[in-house]
Amino acid sequence: MAQEEEAEDGEVIVVIGDGLADTPAEPAYSSLELDRELVVTTPSGRIEDALGAVAGFQQFRRSDSRSSNPSAQGVTLRALGGNATSRALVTLDGVPMQDPFFGYVPFAALVPEQVGSIRVTRGGGSGPFGAGALAGTIALQSAGIDALGPVTASALVNDRGETEISGGAAVRLGEGFVVASGRWDRGQGFYTTPEADRVPATARAAFDSIAGQIRAVTPLSETLELQARLLAFDDRRTFRFDGADSSASGQDASIRVIARGDWQVDALAYIQARNFTNIVVSSTRFVPVLDQSNTPTTGLGGKLELRPPVGDAHTLRFGLDYRRANGELQEQPYSAFTGQLRSRRRAGGATSDFGIFLEDDWTLGKLVLTGGVRADRTTITGGFYREEDPSGLVTTDNVFADQKDWTVTWRGGALYRAGDTLAFRAAAYSGLRLPTLNELYRPFVVFPVVTEANAELQVEKLKGFEAGLDWTPVEGVAFSLTAFDNRLENAIANVTLTPVLRQRQNLPAIDAQGVELGARISRGKVSFDGTLAYTDATVDGTGASLALDGKRPPQTPRWAAAATVSWKPWDGGLVSLTLRHVGKQFESDQETDVLPAATTLGAYAQVPLFDGIALVLRGENLFDETIVTRNAGGSIDLGVPRTLWGGVRYGF
């Protein structure tokens, strides 16, 4: 949202707070925008629930961001197969948000009330920060002062006594503005363990998370704008057993300069300090067996994008970007029988990506052509794994070889507007993703299965193409159809070696072909928003992976669908129902343990009371569907049961 102020000399200064405008060819790629209303009116009040409106969006597990281990919150699109690392790039105000060590998305830091809009682009990315966008890009934009209003606040409680409190204030300072906002969620949680499997040590999935953001936007001239953001979060959870506690915390700072003159410029720099801790409790003796006590990690980077004036027919963009992650894991395993310290371990290293990109959109009447190329210099350096016995004697001291390489990726597309109501589009693309420090150097145990790291992992590379159409037969009615074919080479997966041993390995490839449908209808006070995705994904296995050939990748459903029907009976009032379906998935690469299909119904209602205050009612999983989020040889975890929320909101 723009804010206009008239300067003393009569010039009008426009303060926007966003990045540069979309290019003419942006619709050539399969994209969907989620507006602020959809984001802040989800049945659960969580950002991953809002993203669930995009069929094909999935987390590594079906758990929400209150009841899962934070390190399992990787996200992907287009059923490209999952481990806990993200294959879709998530950004907030242009800044990549994935954890620099693990690659998961810190959903506790992405508070819906702070978000103005979300643009989801499916398919391999290019341009700035294109590395990592194998499955697509999820771009969140912070809400500006006009969207938030001077003061916002909400407080809700659910039928388990859990609470959700958020608030914000927006102040105009001269020709700019400052927005400060925060949220605190806490509660005892629900039992993720089925009732028949519970033991005295079984614990609820308790959670306690807090996040805050301060964002300032100010004009430097009539065409130059400065944006700065500080974000901090602390997220604590308990998983499955008493004492199995985890934490994820972070502090981010970024500064961005946007120029909207003849020469358009987007210059961004950021730094992130993140940490993660986790205590693993034995599932047989119910005592701590591993203390992942510290994972200090630093992420930093930036980009410079330039758009020179090259005439009305062309939109040219070029520039460079850089990302670096540096961190290490510090952990101590303990004997399940004696409780004595067994060893001390440290593992870590650094990865970096320096990219140069060039892209041009060429408008020829009803036809828009686009093409771009990137060159990425990727490095994996300083890798080590060190283990000492309790007396301090070094028993393992591995130093791994550095990896350095250049990779060229590209994308191109065409958009043809056949008329005012119909547009055809086609695109082809490639992309890359560096393995994370977690995948390279950190082994882990989910008793009794050990998963080994692999310091020799190679960069993932994707090639794909798609074609589709967008049809708007009348105002307020829009349909979309996209067919795609993607091939992910060197796909990193947890490969089963024995019943109790896995290792992260590069698979030869994962092939994914599918169809995505979308519909948006708005007729008076009633609206409908729905998406449907079908994906046929298989592993292309050869050599050591031959046994996996033709199998479906883990955590990958064939069908996914989402639909929301909303009714606005009066000014400021809203009632909506949201139906979600996720098809059957397999837990691991062996296709032995099934996660059954799950269909859930959620609801949201907002009733204005007085002076900007509204009553809010929400319902999650209203039919109390059994959602299996993990099935390891019959050891099962469950997702959120039926949950009812009630409270008040002000200023939304």
CATH topology label? Maltoporin, Chain A
Strand content of the residues, in percent? over 45%
Coarse shape:
globular
Uncertain segments: 1-10
What can you tell me about this protein's structure?
- The protein is an all-beta fold.
- It has one domain (3-650): Maltoporin, Chain A, CATH 2.40.170.20.
- Helices cover 3% and strands 59% of the residues.
- The protein has 4 helices and 39 strands.
- It has a 26-stranded mixed beta sheet that branches.
- Strand 15 and strand 16 (264-281) form a beta hairpin.
- The longest helix is centred in the N-terminal third of the chain and has 5 residues, at 36-40.
- The model is unreliable at 1-10 (pLDDT under 50).
Present the secondary structure layout.
Layout: E1 3-6, E2 12-15, E3 31-35, H1 36-40, H2 47-51, E4 58-59, E5 75-76, E6 88-92, E7 95-96, E8 115-122, E9 136-142, H3 145-148, E10 151-158, E11 163-173, E12 176-187, E13 207-219, E14 224-238, E15 245-260, E16 264-281, E17 288-294, E18 297-307, E19 314-333, E20 344-364, E21 367-388, E22 394-399, E23 403-417, E24 422-433, H4 437-441, E25 444-446, E26 449-452, E27 460-471, E28 477-498, E29 501-523, E30 526-540, E31 559-567, E32 574-582, E33 585-586, E34 594-595, E35 598-610, E36 613-620, E37 628-632, E38 635-638, E39 643-650
Parallel strand pairs: 6-9, 26-29
Antiparallel strand pairs: 1-2, 3-8, 4-5, 6-7, 8-9, 10-11, 10-39, 11-12, 12-13, 13-14, 14-15, 15-16, 16-17, 16-18, 17-19, 18-19, 19-20, 20-21, 21-22, 21-23, 23-24, 24-27, 25-26, 27-28, 28-29, 29-30, 30-31, 31-32, 32-35, 33-34, 35-36, 36-39, 37-38
